[in-house]
Amino acid sequence: MSRPLAVALTCAALLACERGSDRTPVAAAAKPAGPGQILYLTYCESCHGVDGSGNGPAAPSLRTPPADLTRLFERYGTPLDRERLAEYVDGRQLMTVHRPQDMPIWGNEFFEDTPADTPNLEAVRRRLVEVLVEHLESLQAERGA
């Protein structure tokens, strides 16, 4: 399946899904895979691992070890600062000339073959990142007291 077709199908599924309010890891495990989990397994799992701990099959070959996504609350607070995390995942605002980017710039990657004048492209791009952030919330480990 081509990337544009896969992204289009994912977008259609995202637009059809309502947001769930229960984001606990136990509840997430009991539910069928949602759009955020599907995006995660498609684009993130190879580096960060199924559980988000940074032990994906591609991790040993990376110059910088992948982040442990189960501990994002240490960097992004509790509850997670979704806007800041979404900005990092999207990556387009953080690009610099001299800083190597180990993680793909997903704001571009999701739509690399899509014409820039596609209607609602930015809204769909934001929604993809938003549902991915929602899934990352569900991966958060028990916060120490």
List the helices and strands and how they pair.
Layout (H helix, E strand, L loop, with lengths): L2 H14 L8 H6 L4 H9 L1 H4 L24 H4 L5 H9 L15 H4 L11 H18 L7
Molecular shape: globular
Q: What is the arithmetic mean of pLDDT?
A: 78
The number of helices is 8
Q: What is the helical fraction, as a range of percent?
A: 40-55%
Number of strands: 0
Uncertain runs: 17-28
Overview of the structural elements:
The chain is mainly alpha-helical and 145 residues long. The protein has one domain (3-138). It is built from 8 helices and no strands. It has helices at residues 3-16, 25-30, 35-43, 45-48, 73-76, 82-90, 106-109, 121-138. Helix 1 crosses helix 8 (121-138), helix 3 crosses helix 8 (121-138) and helix 6 (82-90) packs across helix 8 (121-138). It is globular and about 40 Å long. Mean pLDDT is 78; it is low at 17-28.
Short description:
This protein has 145 residues and is mainly α. It is built from 8 helices and no strands.
